[in-house]
Task: structure prediction
Amino acid sequence: MREIDNKVVCDILNEVMEYELAGVVRYTHSSLMVSGPNRIPIVEFLQAQAQESLTHAQQAGELLTGLDGHPSQKIAKITESNRHSINDILQESLDHELYALSLYKKLLESVENASIYLEEYSRNMIGQEEQHSLELKKMLKDFSIS
Result:
């Protein structure tokens, strides 16, 4: 087993925290912008994603402080496309999930063979983000059929 580089791991966990907090804002905003006949299930899905992003940010913050890091009070930059069709919202959500997935993979690389606990955390989060990405891809398939 190698040693954890606490600074690197804490920096990544802060990045995760900031990005997940941005997800709370993104998903909340998106849920408010949905209209049309499929509004209710999509709003419920987006609200659940916002709540899960908050939980993920809190989990990352707990790990961060456990490693003697200091949690950031920032959120990641949120790009606003001003396009609010359901297709656009779902595509932006997919893009968000894929970037979150890359952050958890980056974390895994930094803790591999250094901490079983942090490895398992990273792998679990990767699995969750992959599952969300698959769900969004399936939701988007409906829009590719014209």
Observations:
- Helices lie at 6-33, 39-66, 86-111, 116-144.
